[in-house]
Design a protein that fits this description.
The structure holds 3 protein chains of 3 kinds.
Chain A (H helix, E strand, L loop, with lengths): L3 E9 L5 E10 L4 E5 L6 H9 L6 E6 L2 E5 L11 E4 L11 H12 L3 H14 L15 H13 L5 E5 L7 H18 L2 E6 L2 H7 L2 E6 L2 E6 L1 H6 L4 H7 L3 E11 L2 E6 L3 E5 L8 E6 L4 E5 L10 E11 L4 E7 L2 E7 L9 E6 L5 E4 L2
Parallel strand pairs in A: 3-8, 3-9, 6-7, 7-8
Antiparallel strand pairs in A: 1-2, 1-4, 4-5, 9-10, 11-12, 11-14, 12-13, 14-20, 15-19, 16-17, 16-19, 17-18
Chain B lengths: L1 H17 L11 H13 L5 H10 L1 E6 L6 H11 L4 E6 L2 H13 L7 E4 L2 H9 L24 E14 L5 H7 L10 H4 L2 E4 L5 H14 L1 H9 L3 E3 L2 H10 L4 E6 H9 L4 E4 L6 E8 L6 H11 L2 H10 L28 H8 L5 H9 L2
Parallel strand pairs in B: 1-2, 1-3, 5-6, 5-7
Antiparallel strand pairs in B: 3-9, 4-7, 4-8, 4-9
Helix pairs in contact in B: 3-13, 4-14, 9-10, 9-15, 11-12
Chain C lengths: L2 H4 L2 H28 L15 H8 L1 H34 L5 H9 L6 H12 L5 H10 L12 H24 L4 H9 L4 H30 L2 H10 L4 H10 L5 H29 L20 H28 L16 H7 L3 H33 L6 H9 L6 H14 L8 H27 L2 H8 L4 H12 L1 H17 L4 H4 L7 H11 L2 H26 L6
Helix pairs in contact in C: 2-13, 2-18, 3-4, 3-13, 4-5, 4-8, 4-10, 4-12, 6-11, 6-14, 8-10, 8-11, 9-10, 10-13, 12-13, 13-18, 14-25, 15-25, 16-17, 16-19, 16-22, 19-22, 20-21, 22-25, 24-25
The chains are: A alpha+beta, B alpha/beta, C mainly alpha.
Chain lengths: 359, 367, 565
């Protein structure tokens, strides 16, 4: 198993702007790191550089302190001891499931019975044993995906790479498979780099997320870090829904800051923010609580009155759009009883108010 | 007596009325008058009706075998005299031309007025089938029996089946010395020189040549000839090309036309007729359902008249009527021994069939 | 609704096309079969039913040898051409060989140099005694006598045929090599396969059906080729079926019935080939997908082998294009064929003769007209037929249609010509003897080419796009015209160019069906060669070849046809 280190990676394509413009990233041994971002952000290119399918224009990539990629030196893919699951699975249509999985082992020069043993081991682990003699065209999407995974795991690689492997499957299958995938990966303990544009997927599967935009990493950290403490609006908006309101810091002390918020008046936030500056306040819809009428019982902080303008029932939760103080606030709650035009009170726990500096 | 005179006058009157009898002042087209005068001189005996008819028809479709030296001047002379007739040509090599003409004729879609061919037996068969128009030209008597089918086809000229050589590789003296008779083909002198020959299926003239060798010298001659490992060609033109370029030194049994064409362009090609001289007629006939019968008849009359024959004989083909008027016959390397007498029908029959000469030739020469 | 409103005119049109197809393909075939079992040509009153023609075909050792030789020639040529075509296709499309764009253009050109030209050129270059190349080699290596090269051998015939047919294999395979999803190869690399193993274990198996289908077409074309074997065969003591057919038709005494019988036998052989080809073609597209996401093709880096590979390609181009062209161009300025070329021998007489009189001008005009119309009508007709086969799933018997459209390719040119001659002589359609019978002949002869391209293109696209148009209100034909045709513009255009060139060079059908008004350049060249000045034929070939090159260049530069790289 390998630790992956990427330093200052850059990749230019002819006639384009830089596809990757300076990436630094470390994936510890056994860690699952996601490269998350919108189309064109450079995540797939980064993955392909790690795979050796692209040569960097600048920067280096190390596997356990061994240089594998630089602009001058690029170890060919077939020598990197990696596994890769492609978006289209790339199962060879002319080989059976068994032969697809055994191919990398044949190339390694393993003996016949060694191959047999290992392939069946992997197939059984992934519940594919009864399908061993089928051809890819005879498998369902989910089955194909697992065969692709089996093929990549069979030669016990040091690193596993994933290029949006679940994007061709339907929603429910996707959810189920990503949980399975994480548990398998953690069981095997293999360092994995996982490219996706789906933030829910990234958050479910990763130990670490590197959110990319326009060829750079905007923020990297644990899923919770990105969600609760985004460094800017882009990050905040990408990993979840949010109400973004502009505000000005009135004063800040010890454990809290008071901010003048557009439309809603004042808000208390548990972060310490340098006073006097403008900032963006993020209220996650699921952290905005909604109460009937003009309840002023506690007369505490962070209470505003508003009127429901839209109600969307969603089964396990209901979304409300509330007009309060001239701004609209989105609320996501289990309380489904409120009606349109109803007068309500909104509240937010100061600890859940996210302040994002605007610079 | 009065009764007799009266009867004569009445008869004359009746005859005249019915059109028979001495041609009275028939209304002649003034433009054609001059032409008629020329015709009286050059093509005596050809009636005015044909000229008039041709004038009305205005066109002639000529299917021929292509003699680039002879046909253009011939047509030029024809057009000079008869400018009101537009001549359209279709030319091809013997086989395809034969196929096209006979297929069209049989399907009653005759497009040709005049058709040319060099195989006597084939032309006779076509005549027998009724695909040719019966028309006896006024100069019929001036052409030999063997080389015509009276009333059907006549020889507008003849080609000879000759032996040609590249004069840069083989000096004229050496060639002439050895080619006085056909037996000279086996002269060991030719062994080191490369020789070329035409495959027997290529046409009637080549077949006549091989037949003659077979008749005169027997099958052994063929075998010895084959032993010289001649290079084989499809037709006389590829052979003549090869002689001209030096690819082969000697080319045998080719139609003179082929060698002549190269010679005219300056290639170092000479040829001669060993003894006996093989003449193959270019037969010309009118199609039975010719779209322009009068123009066709007129053309025939012209081609076989003295003027027509002189044009042909001085440009490309010797004529049975006026002889050989070409320039090269005076050259020292060319000779003209007596003609070979042959029966075309017999040759035709001998070629075909499982034991025919064609199969035998293939067995001997193609191994 | 009145009955006139009920009738779906489009369906009527399509039905009429099908009827037309049957007539165009089956009638000549019918006459051919009739002639094969008859003892005399059609119309000859002495004819009667007989098996003699076939007895002669199977009974004489000559014809047996011809049959076996045809098969042998087909097999050997295919065995050389297809690997070579694959090699070139892989090099140009998938490696970093230099000058890929240029090579791609040049690789296609030999297809459009007529085999007749090629033979003439190489007779001048490589005949054992006075061939140019031989003279040079003898001078360089200082030995006497003949050779070392001899075009009049089995090897020579194979060489010429292979040179001519390599582009066919190249085009077919290059098209497929470019559409394989690159992730198959990447997955193999990741699994540990080196470049060569990727080729062997992944690329070739996936491309195999396309390779095999190319092989079958090449086999059929090699077996039915007649100009090369006619010119070189007799001296090489190598006789094939097309040669026998040719001499049975044109030489004397002619035996068109025997030719028809041989034509039927050849038809059966090639028919079997086409049958297997069709099965392969279906397989060929199972494994290949259009990379919709625009992922770049894997270009293999072959390091210093690049230049060696380039040299190899250039040798082929030299041999297949440059040398013959130089020979023909040179010859066109001479009075007669000779190797003693001195300055005073050069002349413009051949070109002067060409333009003397209106005949050759007419021929050029006819050739261009027929090629233009033949290609345009031919491709449209083929597309509509492919459309019927691919999209009208409910119509029974589409398979027959598919077979009929491919059939003409298996009918040797000369056999088809005979069948067409008899058909249009007897059919009360007044096109015999005009230029229109040639047009019909060309469309029939080249239908398979246009059909194959249309069919595979339609297969790759799938019907969804047209269905979307129909939902928006377009009729089926309208959807085809507005949606599919623009998308398929490039492959359809390539089919157009191929048919244009083939029509411009067509000899075997034309020579039997032309009249003085419908003379074409190819026939004029053949006539010149058979009956008169070979060198004038050279001059005409130069012009004809020039037209071909211009057309290909325009197609590539302006319309992006054949642009695979």
């Amino acid at each position: 198993m390998s630790r992956i280190e990427i330093r200052g990676l850059r990749k230019f394509f002819p006639g384009n702007v830089a596809a990757i413009d300076g990436i630094d990233l470390i994936a510890q041994t056994g860690e699952i790191v996601s490269l998350l971002g919108p189309s064109g952000c450079g995540k797939t290119t980064t993955l392909r550089c790690i795979a050796g399918l692209e040569t960097p224009s600048a920067g280096e990539i190390f596997f356990d302190d061994q240089l594998v990629s630089s602009s001058k030196y690029c170890v060919p893919s077939e020598k990197r001891n990696i596994g890769m699951v492609f978006q289209s699975y790339a199962l060879w249509p002319h080989k059976t499931v068994f032969r697809n999985v055994s191919y990398p082992l044949e190339l390694k020069g393993l003996k016949e019975d060694g191959i047999q043993k290992r392939v069946m081991e992997v197939l059984e682990h992934l519940n594919l044993a009864p399908l061993r003699d089928r051809f890819p065209a005879q498998l369902s999407g989910g089955q194909q995906q697992r065969v692709a995974l089996a093929r990549s795991l069979a030669p016990e690689p040091a690193v596993l790479l994933f290029d949006e492997p679940l994007s061709n499957l339907d929603a429910k299958l996707r959810e189920r498979l990503r949980e399975e995938l994480r548990s398998i990966l953690k069981e095997v303990g293999i360092t994995s780099i996982y490219v996706t544009h789906d933030q829910a997927e990234a958050m479910a599967i990763s130990d670490q997320i590197a959110l990319m935009n326009e060829g750079r990493i905007v923020q990297k950290g644990e899923p919770e870090d990105l969600y609760e403490r985004p460094v800017n609006k882009f990050v905040a908006d990408f990993v979840g829904k949010g109400n973004f309101l502009t505000g000005k810091v009135l004063d800040s002390s010890g454990s809290a800051s008071r901010i003048a918020l557009e439309g809603l008046g004042e808000i208390l936030c548990s972060q310490q923010v340098p006073p006097g500056g403008n900032l963006l306040v993020l209220l996650r819809p699921e952290y905005v609580d909604i109460h009937p009428g003009f309840a002023l019982e506690d007369a505490k902080e962070n209470r505003w009155q508003g009127r429901i303008v839209r109600r969307t029932y969603g089964g396990n939760y209901t979304n409300y759009v509330v007009e309060a103080g001239g701004v609209t606030v989105q609320v996501q709650t289990v309380k489904s009883g409120f009606e349109k035009e109803e007068q309500v009170t909104l509240s937010v726990d100061p600890a859940k108010v996210i302040c994002i500096p605007t610079h | 007596m009065n009764k007799i005179i009266g009867a004569i006058i009445l008869s004359a009157f009746l005859l005249w009325g019915s059109g028979v009898g001495p041609a009275p002042a028939q209304q002649m087209d003034p433009q054609l008058q001059k032409t008629m005068e020329t015709m009286k001189k050059e093509m005596p005996g050809v009636p005015y009706e044909i000229l008039k008819g041709a004038n009305d028809e205005g066109k002639l479709m000529f299917y021929h075998l292509s003699l680039p030296a002879a046909i253009p001047p011939l047509l030029q002379e024809f057009q000079k005299r008869f400018p009101f007739i537009t001549v359209q040509e279709y030319f091809s090599s013997g086989g395809p031309l034969f196929q096209k003409f006979t297929s069209e004729a049989r399907a009653k879609r005759n497009a040709a007025d005049i058709w040319e061919h060099t195989d006597i037996a084939a032309m006779n068969k076509v005549a027998d089938e009724g695909l040719l128009m019966k028309y006896k030209i006024t100069t019929d008597a001036q052409y030999p029996e063997v080389f015509k089918r009276p009333g059907f086809w006549y020889p507008m000229g003849y080609t000879q089946v000759v032996v040609g050589w590249n004069r840069d590789i083989v000096p004229d003296k050496e060639a002439v010395k050895r080619l006085k008779t056909w037996a000279g083909l086996l002269d060991p002198y030719w062994k080191e020189k490369k020789i070329g020959a035409i495959v027997i299926q290529s046409g009637g003239s080549v077949q006549t040549g091989y037949y003659m060798l077979h008749e005169k010298y027997g099958i052994d001659f063929w075998k010895k000839l084959a032993a010289m490992k001649a290079q084989l060609y499809d037709g006389v033109n590829p052979l003549a090309d090869a002689v001209g370029s030096g690819e082969v030194a000697l080319g045998l049994l080719g139609s003179e036309q082929g060698f002549y064409a190269k010679y005219a362009r300056g290639a170092p090609v000479h040829w001669t007729n060993p003894d006996p001289r093989i003449a193959v007629p270019y037969g010309q006939a009118i199609a039975k359902d010719a779209p322009h019968p009068n123009a066709a008849k007129l053309f025939q009359e012209f081609v076989f008249s003295e003027a027509g024959q002189k044009t042909i004989a001085s440009t490309a083909l010797p004529s049975f009527k006026v002889g050989d008027l070409r320039k090269h016959i005076k050259e020292p390397w060319y000779s003209s021994p007596p003609l070979y007498q042959y029966d075309a029908e017999k040759i035709f029959k001998s070629m075909r069939g499982p034991d025919g000469l064609i199969n035998q030739w293939n067995k001997i020469f193609r191994k | 609704m009145s009955i006139w409103q009920r009738i779906n005119y489009q369906n009527v049109l399509l039905a009429a096309l099908v009827v037309l197809l049957f007539a165009m393909v089956l009638m000549p075939l019918g006459f051919l079969l009739y002639a094969a079992f008859w003892s005399a040509p059609a119309g000859d009153p002495e004819g009667m039913f007989t098996f003699n023609n076939f007895l002669k075909a199977f009974g004489t050792s000559d014809s047996w040898a011809a049959i076996l030789n045809s098969l042998l020639l087909g097999a050997v040529v295919t065995g050389i051409t297809v690997p070579a075509g694959f090699g070139f296709a892989w090099l140009v499309r998938r490696t970093n060989i230099p000058a890929r764009g240029l090579l791609n253009t040049l690789m296609v050109v030999p297809l459009f140099i007529s085999p007749l030209l090629l033979s003439l050129a190489y007779i001048a270059l490589a005949n054992p005694r006075t061939g140019f190349l031989n003279l040079m080699l003898r001078a360089i290596f200082g030995f006497m006598g003949e050779g070392p090269l001899n075009i009049y051998t089995f090897g020579g015939i194979v060489f010429l045929l292979a040179s001519h047919l390599v582009p066919y294999a190249y085009l077919n395979i290059a098209a497929v090599l470019g559409t394989i999803d690159s992730s198959y190869e990447e997955a193999a690399k990741i699994s540990g396969a080196s470049g060569f193993k990727v080729l062997r274990d992944v690329i070739i198996p996936i491309v195999l059906p396309a390779i095999l289908s190319a092989a079958l077409i090449v086999f059929v074309l090699a077996a039915e080729q007649f100009t090369i074997v006619t010119l070189l065969g007799p001296n090489a003591h190598f006789v094939t079926m097309p040669y026998l057919i040719y001499i049975s038709v044109t030489f004397y005494p002619a035996d068109p019935n025997f030719a028809a019988a041989m034509g039927v036998i050849l038809l059966v052989i090639t028919g079997v080939g086409i049958y297997f080809y069709r099965r392969m073609a279906v397989q060929a597209f199972k494994f290949v997908t259009i990379t919709g996401k625009g992922s770049r093709l894997q270009i293999a880096d072959i390091g210093k082998w690049r230049y060696i590979a380039l040299a190899g390609c250039l040798v082929y181009i030299l041999v297949a294009i440059v040398l013959p062209y130089i020979a023909i161009v040179l010859g066109s300025f001479l009075d007669y064929i000779t190797h003693n070329i001195t300055w005073d021998k050069f002349t413009l007489e051949n070109y002067a003769r060409m333009f003397r009189g209106t005949d050759n001008i007419l021929a050029i005009g006819n050739t261009l007209l027929l090629a233009l119309l033949g290609a345009s009508v031919g491709v449209t007709f083929a597309l509509l037929l492919a459309f019927i086969v691919q999209r009208f799933k409910t119509v029974k018997g589409r398979g027959i249609l598919d077979y009929l459209c491919m059939m003409p390719i298996s009918i040797p040119g000369l056999s088809l010509a005979l069948g067409l001659l008899w058909t249009y002589l007897y059919l009360p359609v007044p096109i015999y003897g005009t230029i229109w019978v040639l047009l019909v002949a060309y469309i029939t002869r080249f239908l398979a080419q246009g059909y194959r391209i249309s069919s595979s293109s339609l297969l790759q696209i799938g019907p969804e796009l047209e269905e979307a148009a129909r939902v928006s209100g377009a009729s089926r034909l309208r959807a085809l015209a507005n949606v599919t045709v623009p998308i398929l513009a490039t492959p359809l255009l390539s089919g157009w160019v191929i048919i244009f060139i083939l029509a411009a060079l067509e000899v075997s059908c034309t020579i039997i069906l032309y009249s003085s008004q419908s003379l074409t350049m190819s026939v004029a060249i053949w006539n010149q060669m058979a009956m008169g000045d070979t060198v004038v034929a050279y001059a005409m070939s130069v012009i004809l070849g020039g037209i071909g090159i211009i057309v290909i260049l325009i197609a590539q530069k302006v319309f992006g046809v054949f642009k695979y790289v």
